[in-house]
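Consider this one:
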Amino acid sequence: MMKVMQQLKRVQKWLAMGLSVLVLLLSVAASAHSVEHVNHGLTEHCTLAFHQHQFAGGLANSTPILPIQIQNFIISEFAITVCEVLYTALYRNRAPPQFLLS
């Protein structure tokens, strides 16, 4: 059972690495493809480049504006009263009573 789990982890790692490399290669290929069509007119584009403008608005191209809320806090002062009380131990729990020892 342990060997199967180790093999599964190894396969998952290789699959993740392979997909990462594939995404990297596809991003380079897509940018090289779009640069290839820069000087051509709209009618000479291939189907991929022709429909690229439809997907260009799929993700936001601007920086999101996040509202910042300023948090308020209250400053509190505490008066600490010190009390000293003498402690007297009434029971010693580590030794047996004195009348049992004699």
User: Anything to note?
Assistant: The helical segments are 2-36, 47-50, 52-56, 98-101. Residues 1-52 form one domain. The longest helix spans residues 2-36.
